[in-house]
């Protein structure tokens, strides 16, 4: 398989239309006395839309993104977009271990960008140049510039696509994988399906076993599962509609940039480690870069596909490759007990609960996470 360079190039027509729609935005009132309790706060959304119109410079962000090495390949007849950044290492150092970094929802390849320099050029951050990695950052199928496959979008199918990207397209014989959220589940499938080529996997969201039937639940496991179910009662509306009526909500979001922003911002605030202050973790330019990519590519509906196709997923076998975890502090992973991960993984070699960093940890805590990834993956080098 071959690949070719790719540039992000949003037309003036698309940007003019976006601005016109933003200028005509109709805002709702707040449903609760407390901001954010009923979803994205209308007052914050007004401020964000105003900045999107008059403060956000997409062309500057587009130019910045295009300084990176973007490519596209056709895998299974469908286009896959990815970044490929070789590691900078001393001439006498061994070839770096390639790492593929996979994002989740509502995210994009932009989430992984703070990790790229830290992993490919550690000397720039005070690290050992010999610890450099080659880094590959894909857009998952259905996200931004990567197309959906013809069949159901299962996590195993995504893993197959990413494995072909690493091996058949880029020619790597052995690599490591990192991910969070959907990208984390895909990473776990890479470690299950390709044990000869995958040196190890690292995630911020530890996996669940295919079944809890092997032994009775411990008190800690039961408490966590009960708390997670209770949290889902307040948070799960988004996934319920995306998993059952994706076309209904997508019709609204692909037509209204303010609606799209509200749908995505709600999760950036709720799932990150921001203590109620969204912009303590993400500046507006970062938030609007990903939202604008979704808008310009029209990909919000296709990003829902893995929710709608969820029932096509089969139970995942045990993960036998070396596994490492830096556990997110977001509400759904609060007090997650390691023993649940031990039901799914037979070889956990790294477990860290740093107490900071949430669902979007590469953006929230890049220095912390890059250090964790270096520590884990350098331990897997052949002796």
From TrEMBL:
Pfam families xref list: EHN
Keywords associated with the record: Aromatic hydrocarbons catabolism, Hydrolase
GO process annotations (BP): epoxide metabolic process
Signal peptide bounds: none
Positions of the catalytic residues: 181, 307, 359
MF GO annotations: epoxide hydrolase activity
Keyword Hydrolase: yes
Domain Epoxide hydrolase N-terminal: 4-112
The UniProt record lists the keyword Hydrolase: yes
Chain segments annotated as transmembrane: none
Coiled coil (UniProt feature): none
SUPFAM superfamilies, alphabetized: alpha/beta-Hydrolases (SSF53474)
InterPro entries, per database record: AB_hydrolase_fold, Epox_hydrolase-like, Epoxide_hydro_N, Epoxide_hydrolase
Family: Belongs to the peptidase S33 family.
Protein's name according to its UniProt entry: Pimeloyl-ACP methyl ester carboxylesterase
Natural source organism: Micromonospora auratinigra
């Amino acid at each position: 398989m071959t690949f070719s360079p790719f540039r992000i190039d949003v037309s003036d027509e698309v940007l003019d239309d976006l601005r016109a729609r933003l200028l005509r935005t109709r805002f709702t009132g707040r449903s609760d006395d407390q901001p954010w309790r009923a979803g994205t706060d209308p007052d914050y959304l007004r401020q964000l839309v105003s900045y999107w119109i008059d403060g956000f410079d997409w062309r500057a962000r587009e130019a910045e993104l295009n300084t990176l090495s973007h490519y596209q390949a056709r895998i299974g007849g469908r286009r896959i977009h990815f970044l490929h950044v070789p590691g900078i290492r001393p001439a006498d150092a061994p070839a770096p271990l390639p790492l593929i970094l996979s994002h989740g929802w509502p995210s994009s390849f932009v989430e992984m960008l703070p990790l790229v320099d830290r992993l490919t050029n550690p000397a720039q951050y005070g690290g050992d140049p010999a610890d450099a990695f080659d880094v590959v950052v894909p857009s998952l199928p259905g996200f931004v510039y990567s197309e959906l496959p013809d069949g159901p979008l299962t996590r195993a199918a995504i893993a197959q696509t990413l494995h072909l990207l690493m091996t058949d397209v880029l020619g790597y014989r052995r690599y490591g994988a990192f991910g969070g959220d959907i990208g984390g589940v895909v990473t776990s499938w890479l470690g299950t399906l390709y044990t000869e080529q995958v040196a190890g996997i690292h995630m911020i969201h530890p996996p669940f076993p295919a079944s809890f039937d092997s032994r009775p639940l411990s008190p800690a496991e039961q408490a966590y599962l009960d708390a997670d179910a209770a949290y889902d009662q307040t948070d799960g509306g988004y996934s319920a509609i995306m998993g059952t009526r994706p076309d209904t909500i997508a019709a609204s979001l692909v037509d209204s940039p303010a609606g799209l922003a509200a749908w995505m911002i709600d999760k950036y605030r709720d799932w990150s480690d921001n203590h109620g202050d969204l912009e303590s973790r993400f500046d507006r330019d970062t938030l609007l870069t990903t939202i604008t990519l979704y808008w310009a590519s029209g990909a919000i509906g296709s990003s829902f596909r893995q929710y709608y196709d969820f029932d096509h997923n089969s139970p995942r076998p045990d993960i036998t490759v070396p596994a490492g975890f830096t556990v997110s502090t977001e509400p759904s992973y609060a007090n997650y007990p390691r023993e649940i991960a031990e039901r799914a993984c037979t070889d956990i070699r790294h477990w860290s609960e740093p107490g900071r960093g949430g669902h979007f940890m590469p953006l929230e805590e890049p220095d912390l996470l890059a250090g964790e990834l270096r520590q884990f993956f350098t331990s897997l080098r052949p002796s």
